[in-house]
Write a structure and sequence with these properties.
Elements: H1 2-16, E1 36-38, H2 43-52, E2 58-60, E3 70-71, E4 91-92, E5 94-97, E6 122-125, E7 127-129, H3 134-155, E8 160-171, E9 174-191, E10 200-203, E11 209-210, H4 212-222, H5 237-247, E12 255-265, H6 269-276, H7 292-298, H8 315-318, H9 332-342, E13 347-350, H10 357-370, E14 375-378, H11 382-394, E15 401-403, H12 411-422, H13 430-435, H14 439-454, H15 464-478, H16 496-516, H17 534-565, H18 573-586, H19 601-604, H20 606-626, H21 640-649, H22 659-671, H23 680-702, H24 704-711, H25 722-741, H26 747-754, H27 758-786, H28 790-794, H29 805-817, H30 822-837, H31 841-847, H32 853-876, H33 878-882, H34 885-917, H35 926-935, H36 943-957, E16 960-963, H37 965-971, E17 979-984, H38 992-999, E18 1002-1009, H39 1019-1024, H40 1040-1046, E19 1051-1053, E20 1056-1057, H41 1064-1074, E21 1079-1080, E22 1091-1096, H42 1111-1127, E23 1133-1137, H43 1140-1156, H44 1161-1165, E24 1173-1176, E25 1185-1191, H45 1214-1221, E26 1225-1233, H46 1248-1262, H47 1278-1289, E27 1294-1298, E28 1305-1310, E29 1318-1324, H48 1327-1330, H49 1335-1348, E30 1353-1356, H50 1358-1363, ...
Helix pairs in contact: 1-6, 6-37, 9-10, 10-11, 10-34, 14-34, 15-32, 15-47, 16-30, 16-32, 17-18, 17-27, 17-29, 18-26, 18-27, 20-23, 20-25, 21-22, 21-23, 30-31, 35-36, 37-38, 42-43, 45-46, 52-54, 55-56, 55-57, 56-57
Length: about 1600
């Protein structure tokens, strides 16, 4: 692959080798309109005046007659008269100077005719004689002046030279046609202070050059080596020209013309680039073929992939952007580019017009400075470098930058700048660091709120801000209508699709309600039929008729029976059932004759009656058993004593002997009919029966009155029929119970007293049950036939069967009468079923009984959904709960303040890093080379040589080099310097071959440009060609930007457009070229005209056949320029013509006008950073002005025809030229032409450039795009719409979404008195607020840019508005009124330098003194006895103290400290043994580390470098210094010196260690230490130089 890369590299180099005869350095011919031939002047004299004496020279036109030179008045006298006096050019000063040694022998005849000098002197006048008449000379100088100025602006290279001497030579195969090649080139500049002043020629101070192209050509073709230009400052022109003459001696017809002098444009930059890319001259370890970037460009492409940070990344939380050194404002797209560079990627940064490329580059450079990196910033256009340098100077980081653009490469100024930088103090950052400490907290707070208010809730797709807007709208739209909250069981599982389905269903329901009304009011409400065939419908009428008949029969029979029973007529089934129950109860009654039926005691004393009846029944049972055994009188007797004696003696065997027993036995026998029973048990049973009967009888007597009241005549005391009484009691107590609980009507008592036969009651019951059964069956049939859901219709209160008979009859009759309406119910049921199937039964439930459902259902559903979501948002986001407007706005202000202050902090951080890398002035090595150069008065080495021998030191002082490709080849020797980062600006205009030298010197490549703008041009060639623009059909050349793009380099696009103060200035370009991706800030309007303005000069004529200009259009431009200079001198201005011819016509017209109007000259000197210019289409890229005038020039000719030839615009890529042209203006762009869009017939051309021109003219004429762009407005901005509605209600004209995508102002109120102007913009916290990718974009930069454009902005916070709408509406209206009263549209002011001053400490930039070696002081105790007599612990503690202070320390030095403290003269064997034991003990305890023969403190990792200058000679030996400390000394010396030879390192290391002189032995030992340091990788060997890694 390397061979392939080398072959491609060589092919690229061949593009640079310009040794053909079109090169004016080899074949010079005076161009038609530029350059001046100097006549009758001596080269040596011109050199003396121009270079040595530094005098300005003027030009003398060819005289119309034989005037002689007169002694001139002072140059500034009577200059106005020069305009009208053709002989004014003759008036010039004459310098009379003693003859120089070199010219002493000049013959008298070679002195100028008319010279007044004495023979022994040489006359050096400042007039350069020419062969041109005054007018022609003036035109040539004017064209040369503008071309030279443009050359500097375009390529940063001064290619205007005054040449001395000319070689006339011939080609090998052409000895007839002589070629002219200049020999000595003096870089010069043309100057004038105003249009009324003469042009002056000055030497620029750059190196006087020889003709390198000629030297190469002659050597290549003829083998002749032309001598190099002497490096001395004192050059003898004649001697050098004579050397050349000697070198070519013998070549036939060749001649050195000593005094041929020409003013023209020359460049041998390509030749320098050619030599620079010669692989053979690069170091082996830096061969181009192995360079990674070159391999990517010429090989398989870039393979590193895109950045890890995407366009959608939220910068504050997902990147480390806050750690970078952002020193000027950077929007989100710029930060993403910075982050990609931070990742170490080679990167293409696409920067459309006005998107802050220089701002981004400034940040990239500052960040690299802050990271200690070396940067090579490359641009061909001087303006591109200067704007970045100016930005860095403004923030005081320009100190780290070295401008080595070709025309600024002045040795003296370079030395002064390096010396000044070395003397800078240390930046102070502590205070700034403390002040920005809270920035992160404020940033997090603002981000939290923005995230909270704009994060979709759940899966709804709706943000809290939108929810608040919707809820506010619903509340106002509902008015007095109360919107219920619909119960949605699974609402927590809903997402946007669920809600959409629900809304669709709600809309269907609403539509159905419009036809049917409230569902519960439907005639057939309750029917659940979903289908009804005609046949089934026909069966319903007979069924309903039959049902009505049955109901009426039931009514009749119930009424009759009720009358018999004594009950009211039953109205419903319940009443009939109650009646049936009464007759049912009556049908089972016992004989109740004589019984008190209604007496409540049947129930109240039910238990007493029960006990009475049980007692009676028991008493009857006893009498039934014992009446046959006992006599009647027995029941009255007291038999207790008898029972006692029977119990006591009845079982005794001797009972017959006991009198009491015998007596009791006799008494019992007397009471029995047949004597007492035989056994004791029987006797005892009789006695017990008598006693029980007596007791029961008493109980019966106790209930006597109760029995009489209830049973009446049926009560016969003991003779009562207890079973009958019990049946009567059970029946009546149950009846009374049922009456009491309501299950039976109390009429039952009266009916029972009637004592109707039981059979009659049974007949009643049968009749009622029969009709009830028929009724139930009929109703069931109706319910079934109609699928009637009684619970739905009657809400589970009274089903149809139980409802009043009249209601049933009415319902049936109404159903029969309105049977077709059943289909309304059916359609509703089908809709309800659909809703239920979709899980939306709650919608059906909500509308059934809601009269306002038709207009309230959908809003109620939305309200329910939105409120639920908003509640969830509140629960999730504390920022929403805590939000309060005043506090939030205070936080915004604090953030803005701290974020701005953070820029200053980052500047100080970067400056501190730069300061830390600056070597001390006395560091030695390459720094010493610089110091030597600083102290020279003259004979400074050339810059290229300085870079060769001291480039690393220069790079340490100035880590950022700002250069052009040519200056790189000129000033940076191959392999001398390497850069961590190479940045190209305006890379679309840099040819790959021009860029190779720069990228070969770097590790990482960043290419900044715009592939939609100008491709590389050939500006220098255009200065020499004589063809018109229309003949230029050369296709665009590839660029380094295009090549990186084609090879797959990662890309970032800058999107925020800052330049245009009116959106019309960028709208067309945004659509035509950038797919509407740019973020464009809208304009609030201004008091003067802004935007794109079209001047149709229909009476002007394009002179296609002759001058190829439109003179009247040029005059119109001139008038506009003069008018601008008078009316708007504060606004910078530029004029751009489509062709070179039209540009020159404008220049000439304007020149004439300026001479007549001296009062406007001040304007043409104003705006030093944006001076007035007149340029053509090819060289305006990179420029911007407040106002741009465009002169199309081409157009309708005198015969009315329109040619579609527009010069370079017709070429491939012509549309890119137009893109550049129409995006140069900041405030206003005015187009002057005799064409309209309709004049351009696209059927006659395929040129994309012409097509773009037609669209541009159409836009300029009509103010709208030929093809309207689709800037779709956000569909859901409910909150903003709510705010707008209130403003409109207050009578304001509100424009929504003002601006373009990405930077919409939500609402803007237009000024009715000034259409197109807005007196206030209203920004909400919704979608537009949330599109920003960082808090800085959102809360500072956008507002800052908009306010700078003149916007008066007011923030409306949705959260506060939602909570307190009335209060916030009032506040908003007050702000609007205030803005209306105080409306002032801010005019743009010149950008003020930022108010920032870097605080630096006063510093001595010489190398700081190293700390002296500190020796340990031991206590007196050590001398009280011999060392070995001290305990081991004591000795170890003293040892540890020595090591702690002197680590690393040699064991001999430790022993010396101990014996000196102990007062011992020498170290004996016993002392050594004792010391050895102490060392072992300390090592075992972990307090010291032994690295024989040095002892280290265990905590020390890297030794401290110490000077031993204070130590006695015995201790000042290299053997006593640890190798590690020597390595530290070596590393420090090399690092401070940046690059240094080994020979120079040794004395500096020796001095650092404290040695007064370096002996040969010391040098040898240090040389070994240096080799060890190289082997360890602490320092590296690069040829003769030692460097640090």
């Amino acid at each position: 692959m390397q061979e392939s890369i080398l072959s491609k590299l060589e092919a690229s180099r061949r593009e640079l080798l310009d040794l053909g005869l079109r090169n004016p350095l080899l074949n010079y011919r005076l161009p038609v309109s530029r350059g001046v031939h100097i006549d009758q002047e001596k080269s040596a004299n011109v050199y003396e005046v121009l270079v040595k004496q530094g005098k300005a020279m003027t030009f003398l036109p060819k005289p119309g007659n034989k005037e002689t030179k007169e002694k001139a008045v002072a140059p500034d006298d009577n200059t106005a008269g020069m305009l009208d006096d053709p002989n004014a050019f003759l008036k010039e000063e004459v310098l009379v100077t003693p003859p120089a040694a070199v010219d002493a022998g000049l013959p008298k005849e070679e002195q100028k005719e008319g010279s007044t000098a004495l023979p022994e002197t040489v006359v050096y006048d400042t007039r350069l004689q020419t062969t041109e008449a005054a007018a022609a000379l003036q035109n040539r100088l004017l064209n040369t002046y503008y071309a030279a100025r443009t050359s500097l602006e375009e390529q940063g290279v001064n290619i205007l030279f005054l040449t001395l001497g000319m070689l006339q030579w011939y080609e090998k195969d052409n000895t007839k046609e002589a070629r002219q090649a200049p020999l000595i080139l003096i870089p010069v500049s043309l100057e004038r202070s105003s249009a009324r002043e003469r042009f002056r020629l000055r030497y620029t101070g750059s190196d006087v050059e020889m003709n390198l192209s000629l030297q190469t050509k002659i050597k290549t073709d003829f083998g002749i080596v032309l001598p190099d230009m002497p490096e001395t400052d004192e050059i003898s022109i004649n001697d050098y020209l004579q050397e050349i003459a000697d070198a070519i001696y013998g070549m036939p017809k060749w001649e050195v013309k000593m005094d041929t002098v020409e003013l023209g444009f020359f460049s041998f930059g390509k030749l320098m680039l050619y030599h620079d890319l010669d692989s053979e001259n690069w170091p082996d370890d830096e061969q181009p073929a192995v360079h990674p970037v070159l391999q990517s460009l010429f090989g398989a492409g870039f393979s590193e992939g895109e950045s890890r940070v995407s366009d959608e990344t939220f910068i504050d939380t997902e990147t480390n952007a806050h750690e970078m050194h952002q020193v000027v404002d950077a929007d989100g797209s710029q930060l993403l580019a910075m982050l990609a560079v931070q990742e170490g990627k080679n990167l293409v940064i696409q920067g459309p017009p006005g998107t802050g490329k220089s701002q981004t580059i400034t940040n990239l450079i500052a960040n690299a400075i802050g990271e200690g990196k070396k940067v090579l910033f490359v641009a061909e256009k001087m303006a591109a470098l200067e704007v970045v340098k100016r930005r860095l100077d403004t923030i005081q980081l320009g100190d780290a930058c070295l401008e080595l653009h070709s025309h600024k490469a002045n040795k003296k100024e370079l030395h002064q700048e390096l010396r000044r930088t070395l003397e800078l103090g240390k930046p102070a950052i502590m205070q700034l660091q403390q002040e920005v400490a809270l920035l992160h907290e404020y940033r997090r707070e603002l981000n939290d709120y923005c995230l909270a208010v704009n994060s979709p809730v759940g899966k709804s797709g709706l943000t809290p801000q939108q929810l608040m807007g919707y809820l506010l709208h619903l509340k106002e739209a509902a008015g007095d209508l109360i919107l219920p909250r619909i119960s949605i069981p699974d609402i927590e599982n809903w997402d946007a699709s669920n809600m959409q389905r629900a809304e669709n269903m709600a809309n269907r329901i609403t539509a159905r309600l419009a036809e049917t009304g409230m569902p519960s009011a439907l005639l057939f409400w309750g029917s659940q039929l979903t289908i009804l065939s005609p046949s089934e419908q026909e069966k319903l009428i007979p069924l309903m008729q039959k049902t009505v008949e049955i109901i009426k029969n039931l009514q009749h029979e119930s009424a009759m029976i009720a009358a018999q029973v004594g009950m009211p007529m039953p109205l419903n089934k319940k009443d009939t059932m109650d009646l049936s129950y009464v007759v049912q109860v009556a049908s089972v009654r016992p004989d109740l004759t004589g019984v008190n039926i209604p007496n409540v005691l049947w129930l109240q004393r039910k238990e007493d009656v029960k006990e009475l009846l049980q007692t009676g029944k028991r008493l009857a049972q006893i009498h039934q058993v014992y009446d046959s055994i006992l006599i009647p009188e027995a029941w009255e007797q007291n038999v207790l004593e008898i029972r006692q004696n029977l119990l006591a003696y009845g079982e005794k065997w001797f009972r017959f002997a006991i009198g009491d027993y015998n007596r009791s036995n006799r008494q019992l026998a007397a009471l029995c009919r047949n004597g007492a029973p035989g056994d004791a048990a029987a006797k005892l049973a009789c006695v017990d029966a008598i006693m029980e009967a007596k007791r029961l009888d008493k109980q019966v007597q106790d209930y006597e009155n109760l029995a009489k009241d209830l049973f009446g005549q049926r009560w016969q005391k003991g003779l009562s029929n207890w079973s009958e009484l019990e049946a009567i009691s059970n029946y009546l107590s149950d009846v009374h119970r049922q009456v009491s609980i309501g299950s039976c009507d109390k009429v039952i008592f009266s009916y029972l007293e009637k004592n109707e036969p039981v059979a009659t009651a049974r007949q009643y019951l049968d009749t009622l049950l029969k009709y009830l059964q028929l009724h139930g069956a009929a109703i069931e049939q109706i319910v079934t036939a109609t699928a009637f859901n009684e619970q739905i219709r009657y809400k589970e209160i009274t089903p149809l069967l139980q409802r009043a008979y009249e209601d049933q009859i009415v319902l049936m009759e109404s159903w029969m009468a309105g049977l077709p309406e059943i289909h309304l119910m059916i359609s509703w049921n089908n809709l309800a079923a659909s809703a239920i199937n979709e899980g939306l039964e709650s919608l059906i439930d909500a509308v059934v009984y809601w009269p306002e459902a038709q207009k309230g259902l959908t809003p109620a559903l939305q309200k329910t959904w939105y409120e639920y979501l908003y509640e969830q948002a509140l629960l999730k986001h504390a920022a929403l709960r805590k939000f309060e407007r005043a506090s939030h706005e205070s936080s915004v202000k604090q953030f803005v303040k701290l974020d701005t202050l953070n820029l200053q902090y980052n500047r100080a951080r970067a400056a501190l890093k730069h300061y830390d890398g600056i070597p001390p002035l006395d560091a030695g090595g390459q720094v010493n080379v610089l110091r030597t150069e600083f102290n020279k008065k003259a004979r400074h080495m050339p810059i290229r040589k300085l870079m060769q021998v001291a480039g690393l030191a220069v790079q340490a002082i100035k880590p950022v080099f700002m250069m052009s490709p040519l200056s790189i080849a000129n000033f940076l020797p191959r392999g001398s310097l390497q850069f961590d980062l190479v940045i190209f600006d305006e890379a679309s205009q840099v040819r790959p071959v021009d860029a190779l030298g720069a990228l070969l010197r770097g590790k990482q490549l960043v290419v900044v440009g715009d592939s939609k703008q100008m491709p590389p041009g050939s500006f220098f060639d255009s200065l020499l060609k004589e063809t018109d623009d229309e003949e230029n059909i050369t296709a665009d050349m590839p660029s380094i930007l295009g090549m990186c793009d084609a090879q797959g380099a990662p890309q970032r696009m800058l999107r925020w457009h800052y330049r245009s103060r009116h959106e019309s200035l960028i709208t067309l370009s945004n659509q035509e070229f950038y797919e509407n991706k740019l973020v464009i800030f809208p304009s609030p309007g201004a008091s003067h005209k802004m935007g794109l303005i079209y001047h149709h000069l229909k009476d002007t004529v394009y002179d296609r056949g002759k001058t190829r200009t439109n003179p009247q259009e040029a005059n119109a431009i001139t008038e506009a320029v003069i008018r601008h200079a008078k009316e708007h001198p504060d606004l910078s201005l530029g004029v751009v013509a489509f062709s070179t011819a039209q540009m020159q016509a404008i220049q000439e017209s304007l020149e004439a006008a300026r001479k007549k109007l001296p009062e406007v000259e001040s304007f043409f000197k104003a705006h030093p950073h944006e001076p007035f210019f007149v340029k053509n289409l090819e060289n305006v890229q990179g420029d911007e002005r407040d106002v741009i005038y465009i002169s199309i020039g081409y157009g309708r000719t005198a015969d009315g025809s329109v040619s579609l030839a527009f010069g370079p615009l017709n070429n491939e890529g012509g549309e890119k030229r137009l893109n550049v042209l129409i995006t140069r203006a900041k405030q206003r762009c005015e187009v002057f032409t005799n064409l309209s869009a309709d004049d351009i017939d696209l059927n006659r051309t395929d040129s994309e450039g012409v097509k773009a021109l037609k669209n541009f003219l159409y836009f300029a004429q009509h103010g709208q795009l030929f093809t309207p762009s689709a800037n779709g407005l956000p569909a859901r901005v409910p909150f903003e719409q709510e705010v707008a509605k209130h403003l409109e209600a207050a009578g304001y004209t509100v424009h929504k979404q003002v601006g373009s995508k990405g930077i919409f102002i939500d609402l803007a109120i237009s000024d009715p008195e000034h259409p197109g102007r807005y007196f206030i913009g209203i920004v909400c916290d919704g979608e537009g607020y949330n599109t920003a990718r960082s808090a800085r974009d959102r809360d500072r930069l956008r507002q800052q840019v908009l306010e700078d454009m003149g916007w008066n902005l007011y923030h409306v916070w949705s959260t506060d508005w939602f909570r307190h709408p009335a209060r916030e509406i009032k506040r908003l209206l007050a702000a609007v009124e205030q803005a209306k009263k105080n409306e002032v549209i801010a005019e743009e002011e010149p950008e003020a330098d930022e108010d920032f001053t870097m605080v630096r400490e006063e510093e001595d930039m010489t190398m700081p003194e190293l700390p002296l070696y500190e020796t340990a002081i031991l206590p007196m105790e050590i001398s009280t006895k011999e060392l070995h007599a001290h305990g081991l612990d004591k000795l170890r503690s003293w040892l540890e103290k020595i090591v702690a202070i002197e680590s690393p320390v040699h064991t001999e030095e430790v022993a010396r400290r101990l014996i000196e403290a102990a007062g011992v003269a020498r170290v004996g064997s016993r002392i050594r043994e004792t010391l050895k034991q102490a060392i072992t003990s300390a090592e075992e305890s972990g307090s010291i580390v032994v690295k024989e023969p040095f002892l280290w403190d265990a905590k020390m990792e890297v030794p401290v470098l110490r000077s031993r200058a204070n130590m006695p000679a015995a201790s000042r030996k290299l053997m006593y210094i640890a190798p590690e400390e020597m390595t530290v000394a070596i590393e420090k010396v090399v690092r401070d010196a940046v690059a240094i030879t080994e020979e120079a390192v040794i004395p500096l290391v020796s001095k650092a260690l404290g040695f007064t002189r370096a002996t040969e032995e010391l040098k040898a030992e240090l040389a070994g230490a240096i080799k060890a340091a190289i082997g360890a990788g602490v320092i590296i060997q690069d040829d003769e130089w030692l460097k640090t890694n």
